[in-house]
Amino acid sequence: MRREGSAFQGLGTVFVKELSDNISSVRMLVLELLVVLTALAALYGAIDNLRQNTAEDPFLLLRLFTIARDPLPSFVAMLGFLVPLMAIGLGFDAVNSEHNRRTLSRILAQPIYRDALLMGKFLAGLATLGISLTALWLMVIGLGLIFLGVPPGGEEIARSLVFLVVALFYAGVWLSLAMLLSIVFRSPATAALVALGVWLFLTVLWPMLAPALAQAIAPPDPRYAALGLQTPDTGLWAQFLLRISPNDLFAEAMQAILSPQTRTLGAVFLEQLRGALMGAPLPFGESVMIAWPQMVSLIAGTIVLFVAGYVIFQRQEVRA
Amino acid sequence: MSDRHNDNPAPPLDSVITAQGLTKRYGQANAVDAISFAIRKGEVFGLLGPNGAGKTTTILMMLGLTEISSGQVSVLGFDPARAPLQVKRRVGYLPDSVGFYDNLTAVENLAYTAKLMGLSLKERTERIADALARVRLSEVANKRVSTYSRGMRQRLGLAEIIVKRAEIAILDEPTSGLDPQATIEFLELIGELKRGGTTVLLSSHLLDQVQRICDRVALFQAGRIVMMGSVAELAVQVLGAGFVVEVEAEGDGIARKLSTIPGVTRVETLSADRYRMTADRDVRPDAASAVVAVGGALKRLSVDEPSLEAIYARTFQASEAGVRHAA
Q1: Residue B115 Cα, gap to closest chain A Cα (Å)
Q2: A290, A264 contact by CB (below 8 A)
Q3: How far apart are CA A159 and CA A285, in angstroms?
Q4: Which domains does chain B have, with CATH numbers?
């Protein structure tokens, strides 16, 4: 059975309204302040470190993203930690608050489909995150110019733009998850707690659990252990399991893009090293190819979680 | 009395909503069980019944907001399941305890829905100002909705329907939870809507209010329409009579003369000069001329209109006794 009319009628209206809600909300202001202050601290550490230690580096700007100085994490690691928090903050009450405010049936009684409402909310959330991330990106470049005094090269800009896109989809995964939970759970508090629980589990607990699970699946070979080496099977399993977490995917992709000398994200085979100049940077295209699976996984994760929420929302009863 | 007064043959030509065997199933239970009705253009139609009788579900099916399990419904000639946008463009809906975005003003709230309706900026501004004036909210138009009372929110909901220039207004429990003053104001607004040519469909369990404004009502119970018609018609069906007229007059042979009036079913003599007549219509003019005809002196003439409450109580008592419905 075909529906008449476009599923996207009203999408623009919902998008604009949600975007203005997001940007003017106190919640977003607090989250942005948190991220900006933490980012400034991380960048300060990085700049300080670079000024003292680096003599010459063709990718000075990129080093700003990746260098850490104890006790602060690097800018990228910090974003990997805080971006999910922002995305969850934007999405956890997207749909259930409409139920609870009893606005949902009134809005859906207007000549639009549910598709437009959900899609508009999602795109508005993604746009809000995009604006915040772009602002952060500009801040890094600006601070780099001011304090390091080196104009960024074309390849550095290209790599940092890829960083921006990947960070956006990393945020998208968490936004989709938060919106899915806001559809499933009628109470925003429950949705927020579950989303934060998943986030904590994947960021803090999973990196500890994955190697343990890998050892259970593929027990370490005592012969490798005697040589002080990791059993290849166990290592591969640990890496495979770790990649379930979007945080790991984001970190790997960022490593390949922002550290041009990265040659592989998995186990290194001897053939890969044949003829390689150790420590020499890879061309931009090759770095993107290395990070490609991780990037595609993040995009796919965003879409799959969104579609799950979409299907549930279409079948949900409107009445409170 | 049959329990299926809803087996209407062909719906009348001027009907704007027709339902045939409309059914909604949740698992094994039928929330709405094969109901049929036709609502005429320009009338105020009331859906009455206890909570959970299927009124809201019926409304949601008419708007295409919930799937129809079986049967058909047509709203202004459109099928809400296939052409929901056409239906929703022409029908205004005020949900049960309507909500607004509290952080926005009344104008901003209406502007959002008006944009969803696809109105241009100019048209929006004009219609919103006009609608807020009609529901008497102009003075607080730029205040946040969080400061609004419940009555004001309901009126704002009505303003949204006015902005839409809806041909049909569907109001779900519009007056529940309102104080008496707010209720009276709201019922007046519904009356204005009707005078403007809008067909009004409202659901309620507040019977005296419904009686005041509805042209016809349908009594819902356990997902079925038990009875449908004007209040007077229902009174005849359920109570055996619609009107009770009391006559106070002096003279001889009044009781006998009164009982010959067509439409009168019973005449009781309450005291020497007081009589109570039961009739299926308002027989006061006939009673007056009857008294005069036998040379009596008419002192007082009063009529008790049939009360929906009595009809409702009688109907549901009878069915609760398990006579008709094994719901």
Answers
A1: 7
A2: yes
A3: 10
A4: 15-236 (3.40.50.300), 243-305 (3.30.70.100)
> In angstroms, rounded to a whole number, what is the distance separating the alpha carbons of residues A202 and A195?
11
Q: What is the pLDDT of residues B9-48, one digit of tens each?
A: 455 568 899 999 999 998 888 899 999 999 999 999 999 8
Q: Are A111 and B89 an interchain contact pair (Cβ–Cβ within 8 Å)?
A: yes
**What is the domain extent for residue A107?**
11-308
Say how many domains are in chain A: 1
Token pair in block for residue B270: 């309450």
Does residue A201 form part of some domain? yes
Inter-chain residue contact B88 with A113, CB threshold 8 Å? no
pLDDT in tens, B164-203: 999 999 999 998 888 889 898 999 999 999 999 999 999 9
What tokens appear for B23 in the block? 């059914």
Banded pLDDT at B156 (limits 50, 70, 90): very high
- Per residue in A221-256, pLDDT (tens digit) is 888 888 878 788 888 888 889 999 999 999 999 988
Chain A residues near any Cβ of chain B (below 8 Å): 1-5, 9-10, 13-14, 17, 21, 101-103, 105-113, 317-320
Read off the pLDDT band of B8 (50, 70, 90): very low
Chain A hits for B91, CB-CB cut-off 8 Å, are: 109
Inspect the interface and report whether the beta carbons of A106 and B83 lie closer than 8 Å: no
- Alpha helices, DSSP H only, in chain B? 55-62, 84-90, 106-116, 121-134, 150-164, 180-195, 207-213, 231-239, 254-259, 284-293, 308-320
What is the tens place of the pLDDT at every residue in A192-206? 999 999 999 999 999
pTM for the model stands at: 0.86
Per-residue DSSP letter, B325:
-
Q: Is residue B326 very low, low, confident or very high in pLDDT (cuts 50, 70, 90)?
A: very low
Contact criterion met (CB < 8 Å) for B82 and A3: yes
Pairing of strands B264-271, B274-279: antiparallel
Cβ distance B116 to A112 less than 8 Å, yes or no, reads: yes
